[in-house]
């Protein structure tokens, strides 16, 4: 380092922190977890071509810095569905969370509350949405649901969520059945029902087996937008459609009443062969044309990825495996460290791009590489 270089904040260099980089957190998570649980976390569907495509897509975009821009110290602050965030990041609804740490999404929510990040709390989580809310009453929380199988469970969950302090619903539309996850098949691995039924242990709920029988009822057709709009009709909460990859589906989601679109291929865990989420983002952003807020997930691994997604039209990103790795590496502290490293890297990237904040990012910050 020359004397002219400006050092990153002291907390990120030589600070004695256990994890100096996000990669170290991922490595610690892998070390802490049994091999079959790591495979469940890290793996994708089929031959994992979509899982890899998600990462390759980020590498195809190069940054175009604007030097000597006079830009102010950059701010990463933003808002999403009315929630004020310290940076444009939410944590994904990842179920079976107690496999990674006993506190699961409760620890994630506490880390998020401390770091100004919003949680999307999974229906198939290890703790109930009431428990997660109680763990971090100040965190911005969104409740995720699966519109599949029979409607009774979906409607009961909506009614239950309405008065629990959740600000929105996240409806996962790319999961009419589970993906073909070969690592789990090879490992003969399925999560213990106890880690995915936290929402169905409360008094008065149907038995977990009964709920899952209704959800995965193969005699039920795949839901339509009309059916979803009907089931949501009584809900006072705005909702996001999670798992959109085309402009046409974004249009249909907005017509059904969605306030937000999550461009996502479920982290490559559902339809193998589907395109990278980042590659589909410009098409979806064009179709949405400002009528809904846009989130992107699938493949975010560092702050530079956040900047690229925002430049291509996302308002925020959602992190799945990265947050799960923070949890597996060191519980609440690990998730907080993920957020702090992401925010520090994003701040560095914004400064080097000559942009004064996340809202200043647009396609002029990027150039697509030849390949
Ligand atoms: C272990 C695990 C469990 C997940 N469970 C759910 C779920 O129950 N519902 C859902 O909509 N998405 C689920 N997802 C997908 C995430 O919400 C998100 O779309 C994905 O992880 C984003 O990709 P990334 O992991 O590359 O960040 C899960 C992901 C992982 C890794």
By secondary-structure content and strand pairing, the structural class works out as: alpha/beta
Bound molecules: flavin mononucleotide
Shape: globular
What are the secondary-structure elements, in order, as H or E? HHHEEEEHEHEHEHHHEHEHEHEHE
Strands, count: 12
Ends distance:
33 Å
| Domain module tally | 1
Approximately what portion of the residues adopt beta-strand conformation?
A: 5-15%
Average pLDDT figure: 93
Low-confidence stretches: 1-5
Briefly note the CATH topology name.
TIM Barrel
CATH superfamily: Aldolase class I
Name the assembly state. Answer: single chain
Q: Biggest sheet, open or closed, and with what strands and sense?
A: 8 strands, parallel, barrel
Global Rg: 20 Å
Instruction: Tell me roughly what share of residues is in helical segments.
Output: 25-40%
Q: Based on the structure given, which CATH architecture is correct? A: Alpha-Beta Barrel
Q: Strand order, biggest sheet?
A: 4-5-6-7-8-9-10-11
Number of helical regions: 13
Q: What is the class in the CATH system?
A: Alpha Beta
Family: Belongs to the FMN-dependent alpha-hydroxy acid dehydrogenase family.
Organism: Amycolatopsis acididurans
Pfam families: FMN_dh (PF01070)
Cofactor: FMN
Q: How are the secondary structure elements laid out?
A:
Elements: H1 22-32, H2 35-42, H3 49-59, E1 61-63, E2 78-80, E3 83-85, E4 89-91, H4 104-115, E5 118-121, H5 129-135, E6 141-145, H6 151-162, E7 168-172, H7 182-186, H8 208-215, H9 225-232, E8 239-244, H10 247-255, E9 260-263, H11 277-288, E10 293-296, H12 303-311, E11 316-319, H13 321-353, E12 366-368
Parallel strand pairs: 4-5, 4-11, 5-6, 6-7, 7-8, 8-9, 9-10, 10-11
Antiparallel strand pairs: 1-12, 2-3
Helix pairs in contact: 1-13, 4-5, 4-13, 10-11, 12-13
Residues 41, 92-96, 122, 124, 144, 172, 242, 264, 266-267, 269, 297-300, 319-322, 324 line the site of flavin mononucleotide (FMN).
